[in-house]
Design brief:
Layout (H helix, E strand, L loop, with lengths): L16 E2 L3 H12 L4 H8 L10 H12 L7 E3 L2 E2 L12 H7 L3 H10 L3 E6 L5 H12 L4 E8 L9 E10 L4 E4 L10 E4 H8 L2 E2 L4 E2 L1 E6 L9 E3 L6 H19 L4 H10 L9 E3 L2 E4 H4 L5 H18 L2 H11 L1 H5 L11 H16 L9 E11 L7 E10 L2 E9 L23 H11 L11 H11 L6 H21 L13
Antiparallel strand pairs: 1-8, 2-3, 4-11, 5-6, 5-11, 6-7, 7-8, 9-10, 12-13, 14-17, 15-16, 16-17
Length: 503
Amino acid sequence: MAMAGLYRRLLPSPPAIDFASSDGKKLFIEAIQNGTMEGFYRLISYFQTQSEPAYCGLASLSMVLNALAIDPGRKWKGPWRWFDESMLDCCEPLENVKTKGISFGKVVCLAHCAGAKVEAFRSNQTTIDEFRKHVMRCSISDNCHVISSYHRSAFKQTGTGHFSPIGGYHAGRDMALILDVARFKYPPHWVPLSLLWEAMNYVDDTTGQYRGFMLISTPHREPGLLYTLSCKHESWVSIAKYIMEDVPLLLKSKGVNDIQKVLSVVFTSLPSNFGEFIKWIAEVRRGEDGGQSLSPEEKARLAIKEEVLKQVQETDLFRHVAAFLSSANSCCRNISPLNYEGNLPDIAATVCCQGAEILAGKSGSLDGYCCRETCVRCLKANGDKPVTVVSGTVVNGKSEQGVDMLVPSSKTKLSCCYSASSNYIGMHPASNDVLTALLLALPPETWSGIKDEKLLQEISSLVTTKKLPTLLQEEVLHLRCQLHLLKRCQENKVDEDLGVPLS
């Protein structure tokens, strides 16, 4: 009786050696004894099988990010924050990856967006000796891992381009252990490092670029604590173009002569749906999980968010932005992209629907979610300072879900446009701090077209990152890195330039 489909492939050996074979076990034991399997234990703890035939890059990256214990800062399913292939979509839509796979440069982009420290090398930009050193370095420690992009034909395997993490190294026989994420096809296997180098020395027909490898490690602090950029909304391309290309040209052509004119040029031409581009990172939990208190972890994260927010509001640039937004002229203009405040019941409803969507492990659409009731309350337990909590009951079909969102507090009053309700004091996000953070994140060359030398010096002093407190500086540089990566994606140049801006 004929059966549809395929069940595994026989691993061509040689050149590969099955990890579970007697020779494979011998190599493993010897490598352990020589101290070159230290990275293996963390990787094997989070080893996963790619969930789609073309998801090898996403599976390799999520496996490594989880092994490094990098917090994604958002929920996967239920209350759990965890990297999954479905969450790695900031540089390429998942539907595209599912049908066409993903390039080396875009996996590097994804790793940067996820908050990892990344060093990427194409095979034509380095040597086999350097590659061996990097493999050795990550094999004797558990705080960095190597992902290889190679062509299967070099190992006499079926298929073409593939990604997988390197799980260890045997120095005596110069062999690397590939933890193949296509476990439905081939098991983990040892291969000669020289042959792996040969397999990486293929040109990807899609990009015209060589394959290679990347070293992924943990940054000294999780970035994106309060703000992040999103390319989920279809308008992100036009917004990224406006910020990175149009703003410098506008500043050069308008002949601005003071800070308020600079802000007017930048803000009054913002594309619609700008609010979908820069987001604040919220702390969400199920209503029944929280009660009337916060966990030590929730307190710590909320305290850091509040400190970043406080540092934003203490900058000189923030005072200029707040003054612009509260000026009589700006109140009379219809600057809809800046309206982060809105109506408080609407904020609560949207927040709780988004929270329910995240907790359900879904992403992209709020269709079917309806917030039946909302409230904003303060929690104060055990002498702790009050914490603002937006609570709501969200209905989706026949099911109901109580959702809490913890809101970083702010003592700064909002602009006069919204002064009719004192309830807004302390609510976040607000246009003034979000826009301040974005202005700080713009590349320094954004302002170079300003012709007034005194004004140029003043704006340069306001936006420099060198004077910022450490937390805010890292937050701003992370946003700047995201802007840089999104612009490269928009220009389809992410595979040409693997570097990231550091300042």
